[in-house]
Amino acid sequence: MMARLEGKVALITGGASGIGMEVAKAYIAEGAQVAIMGLADDKLDAATASLGGDTISIAGDVRNYADNERAVAETVEAFGGLDIFVANAGVWDWGTRMVDMTPDQLEATYDEVLGTNLKGYMLGAKAAAVALAKRKGCMIFTLSTASVNSAGGGIVYTASKHAGLGVMRQLAYELAPHVRVNGVAVGAALTDLRGPSSLGLEGKSIKELPLKEAAPMFLPMGEQPEPSAFTAPYVLLAADGENASMTGTAIDCMCGYNIRGATGPNGWGDFDPAAS
Prior knowledge:
CATH class: Alpha Beta
CATH superfamily: NAD(P)-binding Rossmann-like Domain
Strand order of the largest sheet: 3-2-1-4-5-6-7
Strand content: 5-15%
Helix content: 25-40%
Shape: globular
CATH topology: Rossmann fold
Largest sheet: 7 strands, parallel
Number of domains: 1
Number of helices: 8
Number of strands: 7
Radius of gyration: 18 Å
């Protein structure tokens, strides 16, 4: 049976770890040639060596349009075209509430988190659109429980992911019928997703959270999946065939989070207006 992505070329931002790297593995297993984009560090080199197959790595910052443009150009040069663009690079705000940030922290965290999670998606999409249109390709955005729910992050992360859902839908409208644009709303995954430097959290990884222990409290199935468990929708959305008309859709891959919701204090919680 022919691999579902045989002959396809994919560019994945944030592809050196976490969901991005697992998607890269899944694409390679399905016959695709893959370029991963990430910040220039040892992790990017190690990821490329680990992935093997038809893989290249491209160092760059998704917040910079020239880097996105170069990533697309290097992918096309290496593999002859581009069929799939996965906007995946992200930063998490560790659920930091607005009332717990100083005004300066709020401003800086907004710029840092939305710069990666939203501006990075838009710049990558802009850079990839023409190359994708030439091959009737597709874009896939990594979204989140925080794209449609509260408490999947703090005020800034939630804003970035709600906005990412809107950008995905708008681009599906703008780029039709030449490029399909969809998203995968991923639940909390044990990845190396880091915090923002604006809050002094750049060294902290989401893997430090006790997600496996907490899973029975907030996931109906009672277990915390590994990152590899989230990749099937990315393959489905990238493949040709029965889903070829699917666009503007966010596939729910939240592990049932949105039918139970977050645990913890409701409403204002322990917010004390008199102390703010």
